[in-house]
Write a structure and sequence with these properties.
Number of helices: 1
Helix content: under 10%
Radius of gyration: 20 Å
Length: about 160
Amino acid sequence: IMPSLVGSEMCIRDSCRTDERPGKGAVEMFQKDQMEIVRLAIEQTYTDRMTVTVMEKTMNQETGETQFKPVEVSKDVPCRLSFGTKSSAAPAGEIPAYTVSQPVKLFVSPDIAIPPGSSVSVTRCGVTKKYRQSGEPALYPTHQEIMLELDEAYA
């Protein structure tokens, strides 16, 4: 495995399928110890650090109002961001416009719980940016992948 390849760039990520050859039964393609080696190799590419914050529901005792306060559920967790490029043209009949966006994918250990709607701050090369989680994580035996959106307040 090349350390520069992570997540969807790796064919091995889906390797928890079974091999169902006649007469052999379902046999795991990778033994547990081999999958752990793959996981460790992927985690060696985690050069970024993240903090996950959720909004916790609380009750104001004086007013009885429901309020939300930010609570860090994970701090200083190794991770890696991957940036892509996505371009699109305006639909036919509209004023020609060409837009380019940059999808951001977070790679992190499958052991870390990141609830939908969480705020994720990632420090990369000494720069911290705040993101919103935009969906459910794709979980694999070796890692998880989560699509993020740059928090517009910090864009």
